[in-house]
């Protein structure tokens, strides 16, 4: 394989076509012909294994995790590859943008993307049953249009998850923003259907997609996502309190001392986990311990707004990973799916598993956060003379590099989601050492970084919260560990292969229940 002539791949692959832009999302190539031989994907997987760094990253001697020049093509955010991308990825990218338009925050975004990706996965496996379905149990419909099924499933699931009713509800956006998002979704859906020839195949595909979306939307309609919970913050040392934000030095601007966000999210019904506290972390260090003092002094030094020791690259890392985790890790999954030439079924399963794990990561993480109610670094450092630890010195004017989310510190759900997504990716590809390059989205769009493995990305993702000044190391490290357990459990128990030749195996004990 080392000496393969890339021109021979023309025998297996359709000539790439022009890329198109989906809304404001990342541009992707259209779905390849459904009559394309599976031999193409097999050939490309072999090619990936033999020359991944050269063919996929195309980033020369760039060091692992280092910034790379922003892409100059319409495919910014996607690693160069010889494979076209699927309609599944297109709709995932569009869904992220529609959710942004609707005004959903990162937490409900995780729920919405899980619903959308499950609908697409179930619709495809109702056409050709390769993997277990999650919610839709209708009869298989061989011959139905795959593109129509994907579009209908994505459209109805998006609308069903965005227009939740009972508004306004914290984190779900305003009715006006939701209406704008639905209009954009319907326009994209109409444009997609217009490109599919009319006939029974198209009609059957639409019906399957709609039924798959209806099944998962109905299943999640009673998951308590919009149940209001009263929360009263603590007042003593170690207790979470509303945090100041040094606006407007960096986007997104946030008001000072916002009330606690979504304190009842830990009571939302998990997607795959048996219960939200299934994988409980050990808890934050006691205020009197050396470990707490270590965490305190580390973030105080490196996470301060004008830190003298934080490097320019560490500042860039903090900004690169600051976007909502569901959007960022979905983009990573799309990049790697494309570089491995996954077909629509495998791409749908991957994106569904990644987003199921992240959705459960927020549920589990918020159960931990609001049960332990540990204070954020900015509160702790300004009140350092009250913690009873002689190794911590207060700084009443200390400020963070980036704004602090208005939820308790432990565990870092940003780290939980990174751990969960990276574990799913590692299990899916049977390998952690998979190189990729990815470009950030809002609020700090256009930053490009390269990684040599999924675990490296998850570690850097967690470290970014320390550089930003918004998490203690204990919250980050325990969050990654919690997330890996969630990701392993989700991969083992959801959307399993129906045929022995698709067995995914296992690689560790992270998914064991306790």
Give your account of this protein's structure.
The protein has 514 residues and is an all-alpha fold. It has a domain at 265-502: Vanadium-containing Chloroperoxidase, domain 2, CATH 1.10.606. It has 14 helices and 2 strands, in the order ααααααααααααββαα. The protein has helices at 38-57, 87-102, 106-127, 146-162, 175-194, 200-220, 290-302, 312-320, 325-339, 344-372, 377-382, 413-429, 454-467, 473-493, and strands spanning 436-439, 448-451. A hairpin with an 8-residue loop joins β1 (436-439) and β2 (448-451). It is elongated and about 75 Å long. The two termini are 44 Å apart.
Key words describing this protein structure:
2 strands, 514 residues, Vanadium-containing Chloroperoxidase, domain 2, mainly alpha
